[in-house]
Amino acid sequence: MTQIMITVGIMSSLSGILALILTLANQYIANYGECNILINNDKEFTVEGGSTLLNTLNEQELFLPSACGGKGTCGLCKCGITEGGGPVLPTETSFLNEDDLKNNLRLSCQVKVKSDLKLTIPEDLLNARKYEAVVDSIKELTNTIRFLRIQISDGQQIDFTPGQYVQLLAPPYPGNPEEVFRAYSIASPSSNHDHVELIIGYVEEGLVTTYVHQFLQEGDNVSFNGPFGDFYLQKESDADIVLIAVGTGLAPIRSILYQLKEENINRKTTFFFGAKTEKDLILADEMKEFEEILPNFSYKPVLSRVTEEDPWDGDRGRVTDSIEKYIDNADNKEAYLCGSPVMIESAVKKLKEKGFTDENVFYDEFG
């Protein structure tokens, strides 16, 4: 017993010494001092080293997309690093293809600012801004989906393309000690510049969705940045439009439908929307109104969890079943999809069986 106690004491002492060494190393050895960052050979600033590149840019109000909030799981926060980035890390490799590596692209959330850096960032990303706003209204679309109308403060206005998204910031709250942000597609018409509308579903243990569903109230102040994303209608085309979404993936589709209305785009458009039960058909009345307003638009909901006893006389199954039922081929068609990675994968597979290719399938997937 005495020997065990001595061993435990030695191990505890070693652990304490190791923790002290790590603390000192972080304070002194890992003190990178001031670092210079040059973007596109134009914009230049000096920062204190030690943080991730993503966070460092955020502090300078330069916002890169990051659906995962900088956790290294979405792969969206890429930027070019031509000098000073160090070797590519194992946590980056699954998100970087051969072309990315040739173009010196890195995940900014994984790169720590340790020395001077030279970056290349697309100009459209440099136009993303931070917005202060107030929650004007909250509507419960279902038990797990909320519709937010967020009024932008201080006379700011936002310009975006239907299909793009913003990153909503959740402040610290009980159970979450730090700020965190997540990406949500804009559901409102792009003609509305003084507010954005978001459709946010509850995800168990999701940090921002928990904040939105359990803490956020009408009248609260919020922050978001953006807009981001290259998921939008190919306006130069005259092809028929196939829209496919499930759940909160309806958000960017709604914004695109308003675009068809406001810009008098009369292309034949079919919207396949998947849900579990009839009560999960969010904004169904709006979709039916679009059918009345847009002469070439049809709304085709499909339910996956209805029984023969349910009074549902519409399509049953999944959106892939609707694709099989209603789409014969890909002739003069474009498909726009928004949903979970599993839904996107299965729908794209079915579309390709019908003759679609990567050139006429566009999608926005969320985890």
What does this structure look like?
By secondary structure, the chain is α/β, with parallel strands linked by helices. It has three domains: 34-125, Ubiquitin-like (UB roll) (Roll), CATH 3.10.20; 128-228, Translation factors (Elongation Factor Tu (Ef-tu), domain 3); 240-365, Rossmann fold. 27% of the residues lie in helices and 29% in strands. The chain contains ten helices and 17 strands. The strands form three sheets. It has a six-stranded antiparallel beta sheet. A six-stranded parallel beta sheet has the order 15-14-13-12-16-17, with helices on both faces. A hairpin with a 3-residue loop joins strand 1 (34-39) and strand 2 (43-48). Helix 9 runs parallel beside helix 10 (341-353). It starts with a helix and ends with a strand.
Question: How would you concisely characterize the structure shown here?
Answer:
With 367 residues, this protein is α/β, with parallel strands linked by helices. It has 10 helices and 17 strands. The protein has 3 domains: 34-125, Beta-grasp domain (Ubiquitin-like (UB roll)), CATH 3.10.20; 128-228, Beta Barrel (Elongation Factor Tu (Ef-tu), domain 3), CATH 2.40.30; 240-365, 3-Layer(aba) Sandwich (Rossmann fold).
